[in-house]
Amino acid sequence: MQIELRGITKRFGAVAAVSDVDLTIRPGEVLALLGENGAGKSTLMNVLSGLYRPDEGSILLDGKAVQFAGAGDAIRAGIGMVHQHFMLVPVFTVAENVVLGVEPTAALDRLDLDAARRQVRSISARYGLDVDPDATIEGMPVGLQQRVEILKVLFRAAEAIVFDEPTAVLTPQEVTEFFAIVRELRDAGKAIVFITHKLQEVLAVADRISVLRAGRVVGTCDPKTATAAELARLMVGRPVRFAVDRPPLERGAPILEVEDLQVADERGERAVGGVTFSVHAGECVGIAGIHGNGQSELVEALTGMRRAVSGRIRLQGRDITHASARDCHRLGIAHVPEDRLRSGIIGTFDLGENVALNTYYEPRHASGIRLRWGEVYRSTARLIRDYDVRARSPLNPIGQLSGGNQQKLVIGRELSRDVALIVASQPTRGVDVGSIEYIHERFMEARSRGRGLIVVSTELDEILGLADRILVMFRGRVAGEFQDGAADIGNIGLAMAGAGA
After folding, report:
1. SS3 content of the chain, % helix, strand, coil (to 5)
2. Residue 400 carries which DSSP code?
3. Of 359, 344, 259, 363, whose CA–CA distance to 305 is shortest?
4. pLDDT at 316 over 80
C-alpha cells in the first residue's frame, strides 16, 4: 500500500504544528522521519493514524482519497502505529493484549484464546518476533513488550506501520534486534515509517530520510550518501557539534561518598549489592550498564526515593543514608529522573505548576504557606527561554509538549538551583541533537563550577563524552571502573556483559 500525504496542515489554536506537508510512504521501504522535538513528526503521523483530523490537505491510499474519523478507521484501512509509550495491560498475557478489542470467538460468542495463541505464534514466527503468547506483560523486558505492540498491529493486518521513537527505551542489544525486525517487515512488503532524532540509527536502517523543521519538510536525503552532520544541520538549522567540550579535570573535595550500599527492589530482592564509590567536586562520574542491573535503584537511593537496606551515603560529609527525597533536594541534590512521566512531571499541570512541584517551599517561590505564583511563572518563562522549551506560554499544560521539550523543562528546573550534586538518569532520552548539545554544555558548565555530577545512561557515546570516570554496573555490582583516557568501548562492553564481575 502506497500512502501520499498532500498539503497536510494541522493547527492547535494559532500555532501550526504541521504546515503544508507533502510526503510519500512506499511499500517495501523504511522512511525515516527526522526532526527536532516539536518539529511536527508525531503530529503528522497522528494525522495519518486517525488520532487527529487535518485542518487542510488530503490522505491518499493507493491513489484514492480517504478521510479518517478516528484511529479505528485508520486501523481498518491497514495503518498501524507503535507508540513510544506502550499501550499494554500489564497483568494480561501477550495473546490477551494482542487480541484485545478484536477477540476471536468460538460458539456462543465465547472467547477463543486457543485461536488467539495460534495466531500470535504464527505471526511471531513469520516475522521473527520470538514472543511467547502465554507470557505476562509485567514480567517482560521492554524490548519484548515492544514486540507485543508490533504483534498488535500485525494481527490487525496492518500494511503500513509507524514507529514513534521506537528505540528511546531500548538497550543497544535490543536496538540491534529491533532493526532486524524492521528489515524483516520491510522485506515482507510493509511500508515503514521510523520517527526518530537519532542520526546514526537513521543512517543504519532507513531507505529514505525526510527532515522536518518547524512543521515543514526541509529536505529529503539518501542514507547511502547523507552524513550525520548534514542531517543535524537540516534538523536544527545550524551546524551542530557532536563532541562534548570537556575542560581539563580539576578534582576537588569529595561531594558524595557511597560505602558498601545495598538496596532492594520492589520484590524485596537485592538490586544493588555492596556498591562503593565517590564523586568529587568538579568531576563527572558516568554509570554505564544494560538497563535493569541496579542503576535505577541506586539512583533512587541516592536521591531519597528508596530506602537503603545497608551501607552509607554521605553528601559533603553529612550522612544522608536515610534522608527523604525532600531532604535530599533541600540539602543540594538535583535529580533528573529516568522516567519523567512517572517521577518528573504531572501531565495535566501547566509548566509553571510543574516548576513549582519541588520548589513550592523555597523563599524564591513561597511566602510562608502561600505560593508566589508571579515569581513561579517568571522563573518558568526564563527556563522556557534559556532551555529552548518549545511552548507558547508557562500556562501551557506540559502534557501537550513533546517528550523532548518536557525533558528540557525538567533539566532546566533542576540545573537552575544552587546545588552540590547533580544526579541525571537517562538525561537525553527522547531529546534531539541540538538539545543534547545544549544539555551537555550545561552539565559541563556545572562541572566547571565545582559541582559533582553523576550521569546514568545506556548511551555509551554519551557516557564516553561526559565522564571523567566510568563505572559499569552488572547485576547490582560495579563490574568495572575506567578512568578517562583509558576507557575502551570493547572493555566497557565486556564489563556490561559481566566479564570479570
Report:
1. 35, 30, 40
2. G
3. 344
4. yes
pLDDT > 90 fraction of the chain, expressed in percent and rounded: 58
Task: Examine the pLDDT at 500 and tell me if it is beyond 60.
Answer: no
Query: d(Cα 110, Cα 89) in Å, to the nearest integer?
Result: 21
In the chain the domains, ranked by start, together with CATH numbers, are: 3-236 (3.40.50.300), 254-496 (3.40.50.300)
Our separate counts of H helices and E strands in the chain read 16, 22
3-class SS of residue 160: strand
Question: What pairs with residue 284 in β-bridges?
Answer: 453
Q: How confident is the model at residue 460 (pLDDT cuts 50, 70, 90)?
A: confident
The C-alpha cell of 173 is what?
542489544
Nearest 5°: phi and psi at 164?
-100, 110
Angle at 293 between CA 410 and CA 167, to 5 degrees: 55
> CA–CA separation, 391 vs 103, rounded Å?
41
| Strand ranges in 107-183 using DSSP code E only, listed in sequence order | 160-164
Helices 172-187 and 142-155: crossing angle in degrees, nearest 10, is 20
Per residue in 222-245, pLDDT (tens digit) is: 999 999 889 988 888 887 776 787
Q: What average pLDDT does range 59-81 have in this prediction?
A: 93
Alpha-carbon distance 336 to 345, whole Å? 11
Residue 50 backbone phi and psi in degrees, to 5: 85, 0
DSSP β-bridge partners for residue 254: 280
Going from the C-alpha of 346 to that of each of 188, 233, 343, 356, 398, the distances in angstroms are 41, 33, 8, 11, 8
pLDDT digits (tens, 9 = 90+) for 43-68: 999 999 999 999 999 999 999 999 99
Instruction: Cell 576537588: give the residue.
Output: 252
